[in-house]
Amino acid sequence: MNEAVHPAPATLTQDEAFARIRLLRSPNIGPVSYAMLLARFGTAAEALEALPELGKKGGRQYRAAPRDKIEREVDGVRIAGAKYLFHDQPDYPRLLGEIDSAPPILTWRGDLSLAARPCVAMVGARNASAAAVKLARDFGQGLAEAGFTVVSGLARGIDGAAHEGAFPQTIGVIASGIDIAYPPQHSDLQERIARDGLLIAEQPPGTEPRGSHFPSRNRIIAGLAAGTLVVEAAVKSGSLITARLAGEAGREVMAIPGSPLEARSHGCNHLIREGAVLVQSPEDVAELLTGFDGSPRSTFREPSEQFDFEPSEMAEAEPADIASLLTTAPVAIDELIRQSGESAAAVQLALLELEIAGRLERHAAGRVTLTPA
Question: Which of 180, 101, 136, 96 is nearest to 285 (CA)?
Fold first, then answer.
């Protein structure tokens, strides 16, 4: 191992850190299944040993990620000048850790303390109007001056303007590996943020951005911040996905209103109609988020219902027989628990076995489906 893997004091050894990376990179393992495996087996090393048997119970043969692949990844993180951050390390952002499917492992460059300050996410259209770009830059500057860290996704348009306005008090969350600049025209901005702000990636180094990575990136943007501000966006856009994720996490959702004649304003106006808070100045945002206590003023999407259980329950549970309740149509996990009459831990364990076997897909808002044949 090397300096890229920075274990938590006294609790996470180098070998366990390596095992955690290998576990998360293994087939069909996502943030939810990773957390379930740690809860059931206690360590990633024990979970890795159990994976073939769990896959067999789910109906498929299973092989974990090869060790040499993880060794190459760790070398790539080191070469990029980045470090790993694990979900239970002291510096892991508190608000991010509270969301469903919080990323178990991140890579980062820059000033990690920026994530410990009050954060506000700013998102919007890539093809934003000139007026909206200037507005985003002004809001970014005003919020940074008010003591906030501005979080965005380094995309063209609103994202880039928000970063520029708040620089260096800004966090860039990317959908690629920590060593890949995307979009290419923001390579200089991304490097500046990595040097003087904070750059965060969930994907392994060398990973090019794909369409499926952007919703995952959006959940990190929303999760880091007490509130998400949409500056300008169409109704069907990634920015509104970020806003929905923020609402489901119980965070503040804010939007700047625009002309009903401008299609790029329809998303913001829709958010406001659905319960987001209308804001017109950085001072409005600061007032909403200063001392945020987890009770948003916005009513845009209530947090989804959760069925919690203790790790000890997961360790002792026997999987429920729920396969017959699942189809390719999304169903909420809480509905599976109600209909099966089984405990939350037993249902989650059954889902875990199906997921490891590649027979289950997880979706937003705690919904699951069988994988299409």
Answer: 136
Q: pTM value?
A: 0.88
Task: Give domain status of residue 181, yes or no.
Answer: yes
Sign of the CA dihedral with 67 first, then 70, 76, and 77 last: negative
What strand order describes the sheet that includes 149-152?
A: 83-86, 105-110, 198-203, 170-177, 149-152, 119-123, 227-230, 252-255, 277-278
For 39, 94, 348, 358, the CA distances from 24, given in Å and listed in that order, are 14, 21, 18, 15
Cβ contact 83:4 at 8 Å? yes
247-280 pLDDT, tens digit per residue, is 999 999 999 999 988 888 999 999 999 999 999 9
Domain limit, last residue, from 90, 109, 128: 109
Q: Give Cβ neighbours of residue 6 (< 8 Å, ≥ 6 apart).
A: 83, 84, 85, 89
Tokens encoding 54: 């769990």
